[in-house]
Amino acid sequence: MRHGDAAFDACKDSERQLSLQGRREAQKTGQILAGETAQVDLVLVSPYLRAQQTWQLVRYEINPPGKIVVLDELTPESDPALTASLISAMAEVQQAKTVLVVAHMPLLGYLCTEFVAGIEPPLFATAGLAKINGMDNGQLVSMTAPQNAI
User: Fold this and answer.
1) Mode of pairing for the β-strands spanning 99-102 and 67-70
2) Is the Cβ–Cβ distance between 73 and 86 less than 8 Å?
3) pLDDT tens digits for range 44-99
4) CA distance 71 to 104
5) Could you check whether the bond before residue 76 is cis, i.e. omega within 30 degrees of 0?
6) Are 103 and 3 in contact (CB under 8 A)?
7) How many whole angstroms separate alpha carbon 127 and alpha carbon 136?
């Protein structure tokens, strides 16, 4: 999941906050996620403020997850191969069947290509959600955007 729309009025990229539109988008995507997924076993969230705020809004819409981890490797310019390996390892250790990653572009698009062979990196709308079945030779099942969030 990509973070919701964020304002550009912060001194540092990591301190950008969600806009009102971004808050609405995150809530809408949380509702969509709640309707599609019975349980999230592991949540991995970027340390950046806008991703943290997105997660805080989504968490009120879904069943409580098994474990939540703030992962420094989920920043926009992180290495996708290294991050994908870390996500897979954490999911295995936690015995997680369903993992929610809340992060940023361009990383999310590249992570999709790490988990799904032979695809171009997809573009995520703000608060957009990609559903992938399986981490090894996975399948991109759907891309969802909170179109009616505003």
Assistant:
1) unpaired
2) yes
3) 999 999 999 999 999 999 988 889 999 999 999 999 999 999 999 999 999 999 99
4) 12
5) no
6) yes
7) 25
Reported as a single tens digit per residue, the pLDDT across 101-112 is: 999 999 999 999
How far apart are the C-alpha atoms of 96 and 53, rounded to whole Å?
23
Best CA proximity match to 33, nearest among 49, 50, 55? 55
* Angstrom distance (rounded) from CA 25 to CA 3: 9
CATH of segment(s) 13-144: 3.40.50.1240
The model carries a pTM of: 0.94
Element (H, E) at 38: none
Residue keyed to tokens 């098994």: 66
Q: How far apart are CA 53 and CA 115, in angstroms?
A: 26
Taking every pair of Cα atoms in the chain, the longest distance, rounded to a whole number of angstroms, is 40
pLDDT tens, residue by residue, 27-56: 999 999 999 887 999 999 999 999 999 999
